[in-house]
User: Which sequence fits this backbone?
């Protein structure tokens, strides 16, 4: 490699490294803003905004879905397997909404610590499998539960 | 002495010459097209018909056979473009400039396809067409980077100067590629985490995975075909006053 070309190569590497460092610092300082939702632990510990709207993400707790007024208002618990937050939502739920499913709700906390959602989005996980495989995966898990 | 074997080095140097590149791609293209069509036909048949339905999403998940390969290509083409940009800056190689600029519209199209198919899937599954989470936003920035590359190249009259400016833009934008890839791990996002490209074994059933990989390879061939054809036109335009292009045109008419 001629000296001129080597110099150009070094310049390019320096440029890419410089841009990379700048981006790292920028993204680090905006880290909280880039989080799409708060976890239930953060909300339970009071880190989420009190007055403003924010998004809350978590898994729907098994057996927690109820419709207290027999209307379209639905109440369920969300968990990140450490803390639980109760959510109330009036409206149409997405196809993937079910117990054990990850969801993201947009709304605000009321005075009683219940999260009143205006919008509920289902968060799909990264698993893809045929129904038969899903069934056969469930069986050992159920047997383990009964064994306890 | 070089670490690269002599025949490969010779091939590389010959490919740097526009007339050689032109006649070589001319011979290569029919083969690429044949392989692409075979892979595409099998990939679509296996993905849309043979692969089992998903336990949660039913048939809706089948959009991954377009969405995921298109999203992979959007990143892959950008990396190729940036690498060609670096080569053209360091060695001032004409063919690298042509490869770089011919890749941009194809990369932009794949990014657009990934965004649109994702949006179509998002409405029934997530319950929304679009959210501003880290993955979706960084992929949208990638589309703007591609459009920036295309318009910057068009805005500068002298094409060799234009290629140099575009190469720098492409290299600056390469910082976005790891951000897109790791966005789902660094931050909470609505978009799910990686299924195939992770250290662990893929969390997708093998009957669903094989058509996905076939489609990914088919898209790679499509990119090669589209890029080489665009590159041929670009070379003819740039070299229109040279002897070999004149001869070529005389032979064709």
Assistant:
């Amino acid at each position: 490699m001629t000296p001129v070309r080597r110099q150009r190569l070094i310049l390019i590497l320096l440029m890419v490294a410089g841009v990379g460092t700048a981006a790292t610092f920028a993204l680090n300082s905006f880290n909280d803003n880039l989080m799409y939702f708060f976890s239930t632990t953060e909300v339970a510990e009071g880190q989420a905004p009190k007055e403003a709207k924010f998004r809350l993400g978590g898994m729907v707790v098994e057996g927690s879905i109820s419709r207290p007024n027999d209307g379209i208002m639905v109440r369920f618990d969300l968990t990140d397997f450490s803390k639980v937050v109760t959510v109330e939502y009036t409206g149409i739920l997405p196809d993937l909404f079910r117990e054990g499913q990850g969801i993201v709700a947009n709304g605000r906390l009321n005075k009683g610590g219940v999260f009143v959602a205006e919008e509920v989005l289902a968060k799909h996980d990264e698993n893809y499998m045929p129904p038969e495989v899903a069934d056969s995966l469930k069986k050992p898990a159920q047997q383990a539960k009964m064994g306890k | 002495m070089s670490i690269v074997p002599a025949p490969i080095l010779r091939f590389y140097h010959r490919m740097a010459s526009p007339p050689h590149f032109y006649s070589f791609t001319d011979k290569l293209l029919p083969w690429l097209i044949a392989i692409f069509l075979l892979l595409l036909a099998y990939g679509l048949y296996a993905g849309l018909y043979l692969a089992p339905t998903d336990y949660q999403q039913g048939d809706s998940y089948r959009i991954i056979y377009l969405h995921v390969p298109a999203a992979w290509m959007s990143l892959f083409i950008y990396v190729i473009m940036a690498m060609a940009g670096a080569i053209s800056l360091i060695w001032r190689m004409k063919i690298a400039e042509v490869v770089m600029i011919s890749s941009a519209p194809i990369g932009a199209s794949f990014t657009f396809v990934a965004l649109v198919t994702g949006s179509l899937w998002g409405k029934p599954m997530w319950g929304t067409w679009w959210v501003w989470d880290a993955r979706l936003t960084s992929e949208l920035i990638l589309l703007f980077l591609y459009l920036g590359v295309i318009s910057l190249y068009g805005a500068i009259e002298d094409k060799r100067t234009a290629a140099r400016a575009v190469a720098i833009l492409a290299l600056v934008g390469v910082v976005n590629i790891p951000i897109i890839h790791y966005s789902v791990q660094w931050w909470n996002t609505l978009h799910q985490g990686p299924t195939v490209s992770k250290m662990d074994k893929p969390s997708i059933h093998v009957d669903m995975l094989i058509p996905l990989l076939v489609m990914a390879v088919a898209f790679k061939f499509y990119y090669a075909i589209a890029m080489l054809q665009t590159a041929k036109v670009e070379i003819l335009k740039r070299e229109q006053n040279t002897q070999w292009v004149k001869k070529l045109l005389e032979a064709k008419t």
Observations:
- Chain A touches chain B through 39 residues (CB under 8 Å).
- The CA atoms of residues 28 and 34 of chain A lie 9 Å apart.
- The mean pLDDT of chain A is 83.
